[in-house]
Amino acid sequence: MTGLVLLAPGLPDSLLTPLRASGLSLQTLDGAPALEQAEAASAYVVFGGSPASAALIDSLPNLKIIAVHGVGYDGVDVEHACSRGVVVTNTPDVLTEDVADLALALTLNTLRALPMVEHHLRSGRWAAGERAPLTRRASARRYGVLGLGRIGAAIARRLEPLGGSIAYHSRRPVAGAPYAYYDSARSLAEAVDVLIIATPGGPTTDRLVDAEVLAALGPDGVLINIARGGVVDEGALIAALTENRLFGAGLDVFAHEPRVPQALLDHPRCVLTPHVGSATVETRAAMAGLVVENLLAVLSGQPAITPVV
């Protein structure tokens, strides 16, 4: 097993520690690769969503694998990688349950406006005799899941005990799914109270949730996004919230991370988290282990453990 493993900048210690223990030769790629790096590189490790363009792939003539630390790989030009014989891997399944847990937490927190009512208490307004504003119930609501893949299905299972209805939209109906299917994001939004986004990112879903979809969701509606920030037209979302055409939003992802628009930060019925869907000790350890397993397999001439195609 030979070759240099290039690392995207900013990878977490939970990944770097097992990578260093693997015995692989590692270097961080900061900008365009130097000639020596480019010739030596046999692997590139990136975050989910990090760019790995056709130009970068072509600049690494001996590249064998792009290992994505995450389930989403929308930043990688997979088609071009495949045309070059480069394997692309990700870390599916191991993060499904934690991301679905966060989606449920955001849903409950947004409907019950927990950050807003907690601030009411902490600011002394309750002690001063002021009642907290009323919020919305979570039980017996109409829930919609946009994207019924692994994570979307796990979210739907968590919603079942709440006793409401569950519907979904995916590119095509999912065989055996026990939920009502709608043939567009707009028709799904029109039929539900809470729309939870669990689609992949990338060009095919860019701004899928636009002003029209948000209008269909309506002034009592809630939007939850644990997928990719680009799936939502962020400007349209801000307008809907500030003009009271949407009740609230629970967001773990944003269009231009880590920058979050001030209008979202200031809105009392927005629950915001910093892209932490998979950020538990257990899941990050499992993700890192799968990245290392994929690298060791492919660089040893074996099939990848979790290729994306």
From TrEMBL:
User: Which keywords label this protein?
Assistant: NAD, Oxidoreductase
Q: Which residues form the D-isomer specific 2-hydroxyacid dehydrogenase NAD-binding domain?
A: 104-277
CDD domains given in the database record: HPPR
Task: Name the residues that span the membrane.
Answer: none
The UniProt entry, under SUPFAM superfamilies, shows:
Formate/glycerate dehydrogenase catalytic domain-like, NAD(P)-binding Rossmann-fold domains
> Is Iron-sulfur included in the keywords of this UniProt record?
no
What does UniProt give as the signal peptide span? none
Indicate the family of this protein.
Belongs to the D-isomer specific 2-hydroxyacid dehydrogenase family.
Record protein name field: 2-hydroxyacid dehydrogenase
- Ranges for the D-isomer specific 2-hydroxyacid dehydrogenase catalytic domain? 34-308
Q: Kindly indicate whether the keyword NAD belongs to this entry.
A: yes
The record's section on Gene3D superfamilies has: NAD(P)-binding Rossmann-like Domain (3.40.50.720)
This protein's species is: Brevundimonas pondensis
